[in-house]
Automatic annotation (TrEMBL):
Record-stated family: Belongs to the NnrE/AIBP family.
HAMAP family in the record: NADHX_epimerase (MF_01966)
PROSITE patterns linked to this entry: YJEF_N (PS51385)
Any one GO molecular-function label of the UniProt entry: NAD(P)HX epimerase activity
Pfam families named in the record: YjeF_N
Cofactor note: Binds 1 potassium ion per subunit.
Enzymatic reactions: (6R)-NADHX = (6S)-NADHX; (6R)-NADPHX = (6S)-NADPHX
Cofactor(s) needed by this chain: K(+)
Binding site for K(+): 72, 137, 173
Name the record gives this protein: NAD(P)H-hydrate epimerase
Domain YjeF N-terminal as annotated: residue spans: 22-222
List of residues binding (6S)-NADPHX: 71-75, 141-147, 170
Length: 243
């Protein structure tokens, strides 16, 4: 399979990676170069919050984060903190009971509880929220394995039936980030904010796609033989598309 070629609006080419290749990037960044996941996640959450504010054009200006238990969910929970810091009323719907969260997602969740941000597993509030509410899809990223299971599938349907805009983190949940295949059901976003490098499966996803800088240094890409030239200019993100 020839990987899709993504370009910035100025025509700069950016290589796309499979989920395995992105895992290698993460692995070299963390294990060899010494970045911590939370450092990258902080950049992801902040960039995502900027995009949520950018699509917030009308309505009551609220946001609901739908979060899973992996790195994608952790980025969404960090985003919730950044939105609350900008006085945007935000709530969180988890895909599981809070006691079952682990790793970075549990860490981010702990901060949100100290901030008194409403967190639930019930989707009622999401269903009742206004059209102007922005939904943040941080359920599953490139870690999707197999067909979407029932609870996640319910949350995906809930996001898709909401009249508000949906911003997906990294990959629309339910899309295989390597092949672009819908594994059962998938989020239909207004916008996707993908991290560090485009994923091959993003070719053809609905909505616009932005690439966000999460602070991975050149040396990581060099060590993996990925030809990378910084596509970012004044902003920490750039719109990308396939020819
Ligand atoms: N360097 C990077 O690229 C960084 C990536 N980050 C994020 O981390 C993500 C990758 O993190 P992970 O490897 O933890 O994986 P993900 O967070 O993408 O996926 C794991 C989550 O998806 C659920 N899941 C997997 N398959 C499922 C299925 N079939 N049905 C229902 N639920 C399913 C798991 O239960 C878990 O909650 C990226 O997509 C990105 O959003 C950020 O944490 C920042 C750093
Ligand atoms: K997602």
């Amino acid at each position: 399979m020839v990987p899709p070629l993504f370009r910035t609006p100025t025509g700069q080419e950016i290589p796309a990676v499979t989920a395995d290749e992105m895992r290698d990037v993460d692995c070299v960044a963390v294990e060899t170069v010494g970045l911590q996941i939370l450092q990258m996640m902080e950049n992801a959450g902040r960039a995502l919050a900027w995009h949520v504010r950018d699509v917030h054009t009308r309505g009551d200006g609220t946001a609901v984060v739908i979060a899973g238990n992996g790195g994608n969910g952790g980025g969404g929970l960090a985003c919730a903190r950044h939105l609350a810091n900008r006085d945007i009323p935000v709530s969180v719907v988890l895909d599981r009971h809070a006691d079952e969260l682990t790793g970075a997602a549990a860490h981010q969740h702990g901060i949100l509880t100290e901030m008194d941000i409403p967190i639930q597993t019930d989707t009622q509030e999401l269903s009742n929220s206004e059209e102007g509410t922005v939904i943040i899809d941080a359920l599953i990223g490139y870690g999707l394995r197999g067909r979407v299971r029932s609870r996640a599938s319910t949350l995906i349907e809930c996001m898709n039936s909401h009249p508000g805009k949906v911003v997906s983190l990294d990959v629309p949940s339910g899309i295989d980030s390597t092949t672009g295949e819908t594994l059962g059901s998938a989020v239909d976003p207004t916008r996707t904010v993908t991290l560090a490098l485009p994923k091959t499966g993003l070719d053809g996803v609905p909505g616009t796609v932005f690439l966000a800088d999460i602070g991975i240094p050149y040396t990581v890409y060099e060590r993996l033989g990925i030809e990378y030239h910084c596509p970012f200019d004044e902003a920490d993100w750039v719109r990308i598309s396939v020819d």
